[in-house]
Amino acid sequence: MGAAYNGWQSQPEGQGTGVQQVIEKALSTILREKVEIVGAGRTDTGVHARNMYAHMDMENEIEDIKNVIGRLNSILPKDIAIHDIFPVKDTAHARFDAIEREYIYRIHTHKDPFEAGMSYHFFHSLDIDAMNRACDIMMRYIDFQCFSKVKTDVKTFICYITYARWEDMGDGRLRFTIRADRFLRNMVRAIVGTMIDVGRGKIPPEELSRIIESRSRCQSGMSAPAHGLTLNKVEYPWDSILP
What would be the CATH architecture of the domain defined by 100-234? Predict the structure, then answer.
């Protein structure tokens, strides 16, 4: 759960808490050595992650992994859990070796207390067919500067989207799934905000071509709220990174 954190990355003192620094503190306490970890990527403040990988360099081998996992989970906050620890090659890198990431965005159009905190309560009905036509158009492109934060240090705005689809889950619940080799800062939330404009009929699906080709963030829609977004899966070429 990401609601209590300023994203994944460790934050400077006085600027909130990142999930990374909470895990590093717990690892350093349990392993009795200073530990720094590198995550598969960054998430925005308030965004959740069901599946996140990180690597660390150790001075000493962990002899009882199951015991360490249990001790870590006993001292970590209730909204952070460690599922596994395993060895990888010295050259393995959690961020740069990842070949695909999957995000899910959830929307519910009827008030539901059980969806609070994990889904965006949007009060208007949405045309999923139109939103999926917009997805088809979006997947023809690879430059997504229009969906990136303006002030960012990336060298390229090129992303290869392999899947993007909206689904009606029933009872006024919608789910958007998107997969790509990489994502820009704020990219998924900006896409969702633009798709909502399509779903409400404010812009036709075909307008997405002009928006993307403009390469301008001010041409795309609002950023959808962070709490509806979850990093769901990170994929690796396991044969090449495991010992």
Answer: 2-Layer Sandwich (3.30)
Matching fold, domains 19-95 and 100-234: yes
Summary mean pLDDT of the chain: 94
Domain ranges (residues) in the chain? 19-95, 100-234
pLDDT range class, residue 61, cuts 50, 70, 90: confident
d(CA 123, CA 170): 15
Q: What is the pTM of this model?
A: 0.94
* Average pLDDT estimate for 92-102: 97
Q: Which CATH architecture does the domain made up of 19-95 adopt? A: 2-Layer Sandwich (3.30)
Query: Whole-angstrom Cα distance, residue 21 to residue 7?
Result: 11
Q: Looking at the annotation, which residues are catalytic?
A: 44
Q: What is the CA radius of gyration of the chain?
A: 19
Q: Band of the pLDDT at 14, cuts 50, 70, 90?
A: low
Query: Smallest Cα–Cα separation from 110: which of 166, 188, 174?
Result: 174
- Between CA 230 and CA 227 the distance in angstroms is 8
Interval 198-225 mean pLDDT: 96
